[in-house]
Amino acid sequence: MKRRKIALHWQILGGLALGIAYGFLASAAGWKGFTLDWIKPWGTIFIRMLKLIAVPLIFFSLVQGIGSLQNISKLSRMGLKTLMLYVASTVIAITVGLGLVNLIKPGSDFPEDKKAEFQEIYGGDAASKINLAHGNEDGPLKFIVDIVPDNIIGAASSNVNMLQVIFFAILFGIALVLLERHKVETVHKFVSGVNEVIIAMVRLIMKFAPYGVFALMGSLMVELAGDDPVSSIGLLQSLGMYALVVIAGLLFLVVFIYPSLLAMFTKLKYAQFLKGVLPAQLLAFSTSSSAATLPVTMRQCENELGVSREVSSFVLPVGATINMDGTSLYQAVAAVFIAIVFGYDLTLGQQLTIILTATLASIGSAAVPSAGIVMLVIVLESIGIPSAGIALIFAVDRPLDMFRTVVNVTGDSTIASIVAASEKKLHPEDLELKKE
């Protein structure tokens, strides 16, 4: 009798659950040193393997996707749709966050002694993030300048410079489209071949996913709890309402906004959509990195949702870099929360400034863990709130980063499905026939 293979999302979910259970056990038993020395490195290796292929995957996928188009007008049409949908979903996410935080007003009863305590504990971390954000402030057009690399090899050496890699890949792909096919046939075959090799690498790396997720979650729980889980829980309770508002906003996007968008623009059933993107969501939760999750997001959208590779190879790499719905919502909630704690009464104009600044900041935010908190400094200073206030939210930033990355990935997959449907490149029914 043939042994039935366990689906990838169940394997990852199992690793996630076992990692959390192990983390609590290790904290209670005092195994922090052992966990950080012998368990955590395997999670780090897993993330590194995913990041290892992120840049080549984005480059060759984009080049193949653009190069396969027959004319520039088709590229410009798809690109305009993608950009408009990403900006619209970001603005919706920020508006949802502002609506909830103004309604619930977390932080209005934040105790003064806790404020001073958090400033003392996390002041050093806050200062480093502020310096990092200020280091990027060289004028209003600095963001546009940073998109254009002066050295593509240098840009490709860091996942933080993903926008520069995308710029070069789009330029390369456009050049392929403009040239006569017979002159660049060899280049097309080379790009297609390398892309297939990278996809095979993704399959190999994903065999390690359950173990990597276990190591990541186990070590994270130990680091959060230390040797005293009870004291950690007590510390997190003081920021519980703020965290709940962020999570409620993220859930609102996943439960109401994305299903509505899919129902309006596609024939894809939301249950089928969620089942298809679940492995990518679980990986996003454990890695807190849209870039590291990108290979799996692309694979799931193509193999489980029926999005054509032509669309996924263009829309998803761009989305992993510029579309951060979860991060944008979090920035809006965090900015108002910090303002309330410090006793600031934000005007309508200041809240509109949050929408504009958070939208632009999400576009410039790197698809790596905790990048959103660096961008939050810019959002806070745009409305005149002391940026040192980010020290108040550091204690819960890591777990919230995990949740918002899940929403980032879900938003990217939603937009990819909508763009594919508009281009008549979404065919989930073909997948059902293949399975039969």
TrEMBL record:
GO biological process terms on file: dicarboxylic acid transport
Can you name the source organism? Salinivirga cyanobacteriivorans
Q: Which UniProt keywords apply?
A: Cell membrane, Membrane, Symport, Transmembrane, Transmembrane helix, Transport
| Location in or out of the cell | Cell membrane
The primary location reported for this protein is: membrane
What Gene3D superfamilies would the database entry show?
Sodium:dicarboxylate symporter
Highest taxon of source: Bacteria
This chain is encoded by the gene named gltP
**What membrane topology does this protein have?**
Multi-pass membrane protein
Its Gene Ontology cellular component terms are: plasma membrane
- From the Swiss-Prot or TrEMBL record, what is one GO molecular function term? symporter activity
Tell whether Nucleotide-binding is among the UniProt keywords: no
Q: Where are the transmembrane segments?
A: 12-31, 43-63, 83-104, 162-179, 200-222, 242-265, 332-361, 373-396
The protein, known as: Glutamate-aspartate carrier protein
